[in-house]
Amino acid sequence: MDATRDIEALIGLMARLPGLGPRSARRAVLHLIKKRDTQLLPLAQLLADVGRTVRACLNCGNLSTGDICAICDSAKRQTGLICVVEDVADLWAMERAKVFHGRYHVLGGTLSPLDDVGPDDLHIPKLRDRIAAEGVTEVILALNATVEGQTTAHYVAQELAPTGVAISGLAQGVPIGGELDYLDDGTLRAALSARKAF
Amino acid sequence: MDATRDIEALIGLMARLPGLGPRSARRAVLHLIKKRDTQLLPLAQLLADVGRTVRACLNCGNLSTGDICAICDSAKRQTGLICVVEDVADLWAMERAKVFHGRYHVLGGTLSPLDDVGPDDLHIPKLRDRIAAEGVTEVILALNATVEGQTTAHYVAQELAPTGVAISGLAQGVPIGGELDYLDDGTLRAALSARKAF
Ligand SMILES: [Zn+2]
Ligand SMILES: [Zn+2]
Q1: Is the CB of B63 inside 8 Å of chain A's CB atoms?
Q2: HAMAP family annotated for this entry (chains A, B) (predicted)?
Q3: Distance between CA atoms of A132 and A152, rounded to whole angstroms?
Q4: Would an 8 Å CB–CB cutoff place B96 in contact with chain A?
Q5: Tens digit of pLDDT for each residue in B127-170?
Q6: What is the spatial distance between Cα B91 and Cα B187, in angstroms, rounded to a whole number?
Q7: 3-class secondary structure per residue, A176-196
Q8: Alpha-carbon distances, residue B95 vs A130, A198, B99, B101, B130 (angstroms)
Q9: Domain covering B77-169, topology
Q10: Domain(s) of CATH 1.10.8.420: residues in chain B
C-alpha cells in the first residue's frame, strides 16, 4: 500500500516551518517515524492540545489558555509598569532573562502601511485604555532596534503622550561580551554617542 | 491561565528534531500557533495519521501502510533487480532521481558492533531469502561512500556470494558539476584511479 501521500503532505507542512527546508523536513519526518512512540505521537498530541487550548490574552496579547494570561492574572507582577514588545518571542526572551517584573503588551508586529498593518492591528488603542485602567505610570518600549521597530516605537510614544505616562526605551550600545570588531556601524555609533563618564 | 507548560513541552519535542535547536524550535512553535488552522492543526492530524498507519514493509523495509509497500507490490517495477540502501531517505533520493526501476532492500543502518547492530538487525538474512524467492539476478549495493557504508557493503557482498547473484556498487568519481577544488581527497583519488579513456 502507498504510504507516500500522507508522508509527502507531512514533509510539505514541515518544510514551511521557519528554519527548515525540503531536505531537513524529510530528515525530520523520517526521524519522527523512527521514534513513533516517543516523539511522533507525543508531538501530534501536544500540537492538538495547544491548537485547542492556546489563544491570545484579551488584555495583553500574550499566549494564554484562558481569556486572561498568567502574567496579567498574577498578583506577583509589579503593577503600573508595562513593557511593550513586538512579538511573544520577545516576551519569552524578557521572561528568560528574569529582569522585568511588570506586565507586557504584545503588539503582534510593527506598523507597516504597505502590508496594511495599522494601529488597530497592533492593539495600540487597547494599550492606551490599559494605562488608565491599570494605573500605569511607566511604559517601556522594548521594540527591536530595526527601522520598523523604531518607527513603531515613535508612533506609540506619540499616541501615549496625552496620557502623561512616562515612556522609556531600552538602552542601545555594545552587548555584554560584544567585540567591537563584530559590531555593525549603527551599534557602534549609538554606543559612542551614548558614552558615559568612566 | 498558564499556557506555558504545553508550549514548553512542544518546544522541547521540536528541539529534538534533526536540524532544529532551542531557538529555531521556539520560532517554529510560535509560527505554528499563529497559523493554527492552516498549519498547526493539519500538522497534528497528519502526524497522528502517519503514526497510526505507517510501518515498515515486511519484504523490503520501505515505509508502507500495509504489510507490503507500493514498490514491492507494483507490477510495473522491474523484477530480478534489487537496490540495497542504508535508509528510507536514500530510497527516496533514488526515486526522486527516477533512475532505478527495480525493487529495494532497506537495511535500516550499517553494521556497527559497538552499537550492537548485527546482520539480523539489517535484514541481511531476509535479503538472501529474497534472491531465491524473487529470482533476483543482480543486487546493486547503493550504500553511502563512508567507512561504515563500505564495510557493510563488503559484508553483504560476502554473504550473497554463495547465491551466485551478480553484485555491483555505484561508481565513484567527480559529481556532475563538481569543481575539483571543492572535492575531498578521497573522491579525487577514486576518480583518478577509475579514470576512463577519453
Ligand atoms: Zn495578558
Ligand atoms: Zn517493500
Answers
A1: yes
A2: RecR
A3: 21
A4: no
A5: 999 999 999 999 999 988 888 888 999 999 999 999 999 999 88
A6: 23
A7: CCCCHHHCCHHHHHHHHHCCC
A8: 59, 66, 7, 9, 21
A9: Dna Topoisomerase Vi A Subunit; Chain: A, domain 2 (3.40.1360)
A10: 3-53
Topology classification of domain A3-53: Helicase, Ruva Protein; domain 3 (1.10.8)
Nine-digit cell string for A142: 522594548
Say what angle helices A22-34 and B88-97 make with each other, to 10 degrees: 140
Find the largest Cα–Cα distance for chain B: 74
Among candidate residues A14, A21, A24, A27, the one with its CA nearest the CA of residue B47? A14
Ion ligand 1 residues within 5 Å by Cβ: A 57, 59-60, 62, 69, 72
Contact call for residues A62 and A71 (beta carbons, < 8 A): yes
Q: Does A94 touch chain B (CB under 8 A)?
A: no
| Cβ-contact B111, B151 below 8 angstroms | yes
C-alpha A122/C-alpha A108 separation (Å) is 6
Q: Do B17 and A28 meet the contact criterion of CB atoms below 8 Å apart?
A: yes
Q: Which one of A3, A4, A44 has the shortest CB-CB distance to B48?
A: A44
**For residue B174, what pLDDT is reported?**
80
Per the CB < 8 A criterion, the answer to whether B85 and B106 are in contact is yes
Substitution target from A27, A47, A85, A92 for chain B, most B beta carbons within 10 A: A47
- CA torsion through residues B20, B22, B28, B32, sign: positive
pTM summary value: 0.83
> pLDDT 10s per residue in chain A (198 long)?
467 889 999 999 999 999 899 999 999 999 999 999 999 999 999 999 999 999 999 999 999 999 999 999 999 999 999 999 999 999 998 888 888 899 999 999 999 888 888 888 899 999 999 999 999 999 999 988 888 888 999 999 999 999 999 999 888 788 877 777 777 888 877 877 777 767
Other beta carbons within 10 angstroms of residue A67's beta carbon come to 13
Question: Which of helix, strand or coil describes residue B120?
Answer: coil
Question: In chain B, which segments carry CATH 3.40.1360.10?
Answer: 77-169
Distance B130 CA to ligand 1 centre (A): 62
